[in-house]
Design brief:
Helix content is 29%, strand content 27%. With 380 residues, the chain is of the alpha/beta class. It folds into two domains: 9-45 and 150-203 and 293-378, FAD/NAD(P)-binding domain (3-Layer(bba) Sandwich), CATH 3.50.50; 60-145 and 205-288, D-Amino Acid Oxidase, Chain A, domain 2 (2-Layer Sandwich). Strand 8 and strand 9 (180-187) form a beta hairpin. The protein binds flavin-adenine dinucleotide. Flavin-adenine dinucleotide is lined by residues 14-20, 37-40, 44-47, 49-53, 164-165, 188-190, 192, 195, 208, 210, 241, 243, 286-289, 335, 337-343.
């Protein structure tokens, strides 16, 4: 722990997942003094469990697809340029896991500008009949990063405080957390309890499980099918992971059967290809947070009570411009990245840095304030 600082930091970031670490990296690069706080260490939440693929989103046209498209290009460039030792670039084979998804894959193929080609014979020879005959797209370039390694590298040299933040106090223009203080607070706490009364922010958590294994089967590319199966930056180690279907809820007392989870992952992997001589090396279990409308969240936080006192008719459906809302002083949230946290983080952190350093406006479509009017109406 750094010796406690008497001067306020320019920025304190709570949450050392990929969003917190990438923001800390970019803001430090921009010349600001930054402190990072986490209750469990660097990349201990959803970020530590992530497969951390830098994959495009195969979906219909829309704002989310556009943002992830831009973020995907930026992320490939960012990780390969700044953290090449934690980044493995490999082709990526995405196989549809249902006829409905197959339709999306086929549609995506015709409109994407990303380079893709037919599946090489050597890879076809590895695939199960089901995988071979499902709709698929083989991208020439995909990437996977070492989730914990890259987060730790980003925050090297940045003051880190290992503590669980219980309350946030704002006094004399500064936010105080224990012995440290700052003008500007960033909340990158994923799907953990929110720290401020901001129930309107529509977030949900999904647990996921990844295993690292050794296998005598050579995996020549990144595969997404029923689960993701991928080579990693750690020579010879193959990662298998999923968030869908492999979730549990320890917060409600439901315990997770790790052994059973491993079995499910391996069974799903076997639907794609046969893995021989498997030795399980590690389990990673983590909570990822997604927003209720699937768009990521980046922006300042509305003070709900103060805003409803100022504009009580929002409760009855009156439309009020978000610039009229009252916001907590200098608190920005970065969150809600769903299954694309590693893809979105460099893009979101750059927007955040441009906002804080150069005063560039944030995209209002990503603002947490977007959830406020609907929530307020439900309070009436
Ligand atoms: C199995 C799995 C596979 C995934 N695969 C991919 C993938 O291939 N590609 C991809 O891009 N994304 C993937 N994701 C999603 C990605 O991991 C998340 O989107 C990303 O981790 C979100 O990062 P974050 O920084 O917002 O949150 P988190 O990583 O959850 O970080 C939040 C941090 O805040 C800390 N915190 C919370 N409250 C407090 C408090 N009161 N005091 C102190 N600290 C606090 C927590 O300890 C935690 O470390 C995957 C997720 C899982 C679970």
């Amino acid at each position: 722990m750094p010796t406690s600082k008497t001067l306020p930091y320019d920025i304190i970031i709570i949450g050392a997942g990929i969003n917190g670490c990438c923001s800390a990296y970019m803001l430090t690069q921009a010349g600001l003094s930054v402190a990072l706080i986490d209750q469990n260490g660097i990349a201990s939440g959803g970020s530590g469990a992530a497969g951390a693929f830098i994959s495009p989103k195969i979906s219909k046209a829309g704002e989310l697809k556009e943002i992830i498209g831009e973020a995907h290009a930026e992320a490939l460039k960012f990780y390969t340029t700044h953290f090449p030792e934690f980044t493995l670039v490999k082709p990526l084979l995405h196989i549809a896991n249902s006829p409905k998804e197959g339709e999306k894959v086929d549609a995506f193929k015709y409109e994407t500008h990303l380079k893709h080609s037919t599946i090489p014979h050597a890879i076809q020879a590895l695939l199960s009949e089901d995988a071979l005959h499902s709709a698929s797209i083989y991208f020439d370039i995909g990437a996977v990063v070492d989730a914990q390694g890259v987060c730790k590298a980003m925050v090297k040299g940045i003051d880190f405080y290992p503590l669980k933040v219980e309350e946030l106090i704002h006094r004399e223009g500064l936010w105080h957390i224990g012995e440290v203080s700052t003008k500007h607070l960033i909340l990158s706490i994923g799907a953990y309890p929110k720290l401020l009364p901001i129930d309107y922010v529509g977030l949900h958590g999904i647990w996921g499980h990844r295993i690292d294994i050794e296998t005598s089967t050579h995996i020549p590319c990144i595969l997404h099918h029923h689960v993701s199966i991928s080579p990693t930056t750690k020579g010879g180690v193959v990662a298998i992971g999923a968030t869908h279907d492999v979730h549990y809820s320890p917060f409600s007392g439901e315990l997770y059967d790790v052994e059973k989870g491993r079995g499910q992952l391996l069974e799903k992997a076997s639907k794609t290809l046969k893995l021989n001589n498997i030795n399980i090396l590690n389990d990673y279990i983590g909570l990822r947070s997604g927003s209720n409308d699937y768009l990521p969240i980046l922006g300042n936080l509305v003070d709900a009570d103060a805003t409803l006192t100022k504009c009580p008719n929002i409760r009855h459906g009156e439309r009020v411009d978000p610039s009229t809302y009252i916001y907590y002083p200098n608190v920005t949230m970065i969150n809600g990245s769903g299954g694309y946290g590693f893809v979105l983080a460099p893009y979101l952190a750059k927007c955040l840095s441009d906002f804080l350093v150069e005063g560039k406006a944030l995209n209002p479509a990503l603002s947490p304030a977007r959830f406020f009017p609907r929530w307020a109406k439900r309070q009436s």
